[in-house]
Amino acid sequence: MNTFVHFQYPGNLLHQLPPELLCKIFLKSLSGSPFYQQQENEYGDVDMTFDTSRMTTPFTLSAVCHQWRMTAFAEPSLWSFVYLVATPRKAKVQAYLLEQWLHRSGTLPLTIEIDTSNDPKKEWSAGFSTSASILLRPVFRHSPRCTTFRTRLPPSCLLPHSQSDYPNFINLTTLTIFPEEIPDAEEEEGEKIELFRHATNLRHIEIREVNFNQLIISWTSVVKVTTSNLGVNDCLHILRSAPHLEECSFEGILWPEENQITDTILLSGLKTLFLDFGEMETTQDIITRLVTAPNLEVFEYITEDADEFPTQQFGEFVTRSNCSLTYLSIKKPSMTVEEINQCLSQVSRSLEFLSLELLSDADVQMTTFEHPLHVIAGQLPRLKSATFSGPTMVLYPLFNIQIPQL
Length: 406
Description:
This protein is α/β, with parallel strands linked by helices.
């Protein structure tokens, strides 16, 4: 007697899944955001580090078969996140794609990311402002549902085509504007970005090379700010305009402009402060000179390579704020043993985590100590983790270790 065993093709099993389960599989299959998967090249320009053609989008899933298309089209949650690499000469086609995408999201909150390409033939500039307004028109129509908006379009392209197109980002909480590099000859200085002037619920702001006066927004509800390549005066304007800040990161602070702010700034809710003075001398640091942060817990400070750390100013800042720092990171300065001890004495009662990375102008022997808690336990009784890296001639005396003879 012959026995026949029936093997069912696995693909048929997928067609038998209930739509609810199939949608859960679809959600797990969608690609995550590649917006931050980019890096600066040797010229300071941002390069993509991913292949967008390999991304899995709702359109990708809906193209498999009729059942998948009907299931994907009927599930709004699949369409509530939009990632698009914008191309100036394809603005009309991409605008249609955006409208279809956003329409299928129903009434759900939206996360919209408009990226740009590294291809020189697809670069954006002020001359493509009309194309940008066509591309963004579907976004403007759905703007009341948008909670997160990220873009690399230049400021000159973030303009409404007409008053009738003016968006209302009333529910926007997260805004990121990291413009792509555009030729200096085509750059329009001081172009105002007014699209978000009605976004009164903004909480998280990320901007790169966008001046404070360019971005017309309400800062009153903002609790987290990250900037890159802004002048120190712009940084102070932000601190003064966002009284409820809890976390602030200023990367690549640039030289101060004229008419510097001299008024003191009280930030009672600030808990985390990151200052990167890698592009200028710390003698121009007027941030720690003017700011008072009584609840500051995390403080990170980066200097220009082997620049002096403002030890006295740091002590005055901590004393004036009367804060209890639990995390302190100081990178790239040149410091003496006396200066290190002076800084640590300012935070001895509260510090739990410490990272000190020193540099030197001279070609000297460098040393790293990982977690030397037994050496400094008496000076910092609450310390849980510490890393010291720097010249042997500084760190060995710091820990009362005899410098080895060469």
